[in-house]
Amino acid sequence: MSELAELYVVFVVLYLFECLAWVPRRTVGFLALLGRRRARIAFRPNAGWSSSVAIGQPWPPLAPPWFAEPLPFAVDLLGITLTEGDGRRLAWEKLAPITARDARVESGESLTCKLASRHAAAGLAEALEKIRVADAKKREVELRRFLDARFDVAAARTQRKLFDRSVRSLRVLSNALWLALFGGVGAAVGTQNLLYLVAVAALTLLLWPVNAFVFTRTLRKQTWLAKGQGPELSKRLVTMLSPLSAVRAVDVLARELWANWDPFTVAALLLGPRELRSFARPLLVAALPREGDPLAWWRAELRRRMELILAEQNIDVEELLAPPAREGSHVSQYCPACLAQYERGAGVEGNCPNETCFAIPLRAFFSDERERSSTEGKS
Ligand SMILES: [Zn+2]
After folding, report:
1. 132-162 pLDDT, tens per residue?
2. Residue 98 — φ and ψ, nearest 5°?
3. Could you tell me the pTM of the whole model?
């Protein structure tokens, strides 16, 4: 391999690294590697890791990976329940003021929680503080308003439009820089002509500072992100530090875009009907009523908003939650969330063992109506 080709490979590897985005584990990433309709959920390389990774579309038009984060805890009329921790409920009356520090939401000693961005932490802390200081009567109104905003598809759509408009020039420049780098070096490798390489270097040295300038200007002029809530200075500097990271400047801004929306809302905007159905099923199942559930209010509120969004997308909830076609008489139970089917006596009892199905009880297949009614009579 010639030295030029080696250089090219190094470029590609460094660049692919720039396309990756690491986010907290709960974050959902929507990937569009082959166009918008083929979006996928973020990949967690290892079940034990605290982070997930997503890759932005590496070739023009350089679509960024989109992210949305579910709430890190449950909220209801009584307080905040640490669903990611030990399940304790922190009563509103006993909580210290709720504030944001960098990407963390904090309340005295009792609550500290890291989110995907400063923007997300600031939005969440502000909303929770409003709920905390409200008197018991107004609290329910504030809570509902907070949840309504997280599930507001129309507002999310407007946000997307503002974003697209604000990054238009930056996107054009990033694509030009991409073409100069990969097209130019590629041509130099193919022809073994050093003149091409000199031309690429000259073009890159011209486009790179222009890109950095437009990136800074875009951040200053955008209207969808409050001042002081944008990417940290270190992130902004790293973005401008090399031509390869400058190519992904739009990603850095895109990370902030959905900070205040639930992944379900973003899914309704970005996913096609088929993807949305399989994305929605486990979330809907997790929000179904359970017996003696201390979080019944919270689940019911989530479910109602999810069902509204699905209805707007013409997805029938009952059909979505229907049991899968039974693979044969050897399987006796199925998971309502991931639709995996299990044999009786296969050592799987109670909850679905799939990593993505957290505490989802398996359901039995019924061979006929008589069996169904006798089992239902017992439970
Ligand atoms: Zn499952």
Report:
1. 999 988 999 999 999 999 999 999 999 999 9
2. -95, 125
3. 0.87
